[in-house]
Amino acid sequence: MKKKVMAVIAATLALGTILVGCGSQASSQGTKHSAALVTDGGGIDDKSFNQSAWEGLESWGKSHDLKKGVNGYNYAQSSDDADFQPNINKLIKAKYATIFGIGYKLDNAISSAAKQNPKTNFAIIDSVVSGRKNVASVTFKTEQSSFLAGVAAAETTKTNKVGFVGGMQSDVIKTFEAGFKQGVKAVNPNIKVDVKYAGSFTKADVGQSLATAMFNNNEDVVYHAAGGTGAGVFTAAKNAAKSGKKVWVIGVDQDQKADGAYKGGNVTLASAVKKVGTAVKDLSNQAMKGKFPGGKTVTYDLKDNGVGLVNDNMSTKAWKAVQSYQQKIENGTIKVSPK
After folding, report:
1. Same domain, yes or no: 196 and 325
2. pTM of the shown model
3. pLDDT at 102 over 90
4. Which residue in 48, 54, 69, 220 is a FRET match for 9, CA 20 to 30 A apart?
5. 268-274 and 221-225: which strand pairing?
6. Other Cβ atoms closer than 10 A to 156
7. Is the Cβ–Cβ distance between 299 and 137 less than 8 Å?
8. Is pLDDT at 22 greater than 80 in this prediction?
9. Element (H, E) at 261
10. Is the pLDDT of residue 298 over 50?
């Protein structure tokens, strides 16, 4: 008898928990929704791509009075590629209505999950998944913001030698490289651009090694598109600066000014931002309103403020040049190629 009474109490408590959880879904408009994301190997504190996505989702959740967790908003962190499918499955099992794959590396896992779960909304960032009516593909004109990074580098260099450190070689990261080269050459075709890839988005030691070699080669501005690997680029720059060299780093995805700070100065020249968080927030709101763009590709560019260049420590002359080129890109006078 005792067991039966305890079971009833437990069931009642569980039901109360469920009802409270459902209540937390309600937005200020009385709409219910839930959303979660899966990282691509970097953490939500990577000061880059994944962090931007999580901050966007967190902002969306809080703006609708949702709580972190089931029936609200959440994330699943991946240590490596093998975690993608299990993490997605975990979120599906928890019944999140919209699930984001943060990064092109998740496209196959998202496509597979979408096929098996047609009633769930999925979104892939930085890739295009075709043939899935419940998948929204989100892309960014990163070649445009990278072009502006190239302008900033060309206007700043004193040695006419600059560098680019990429994470893994892929179609997406190649757009950063391509845009950067075009921006540099638009200002001064005689500037040399040294390109190196780390083969990873999570190896800061490799990023530091590559950037140190560049600074030792008198390359005084280095642009990184390497996620967590980019932390090593900043370390290398700060070490060089402390030894008396005047060097700069151009950050990526988020404003990385704080990453360039050291006692006595700051090595962050500018940051080529990609507003992944804005995209996550936009799509979550659309899904909440029943207008999720499944089966479509949504592209963000300079004109709609989806990408851009933040002025961290540029000279007035360099910043004016960046603004001038941005206007030309936005009005179509300059076409930036992604390749």
Report:
1. yes
2. 0.84
3. yes
4. 69
5. unpaired
6. 22
7. no
8. no
9. strand 261-262
10. yes
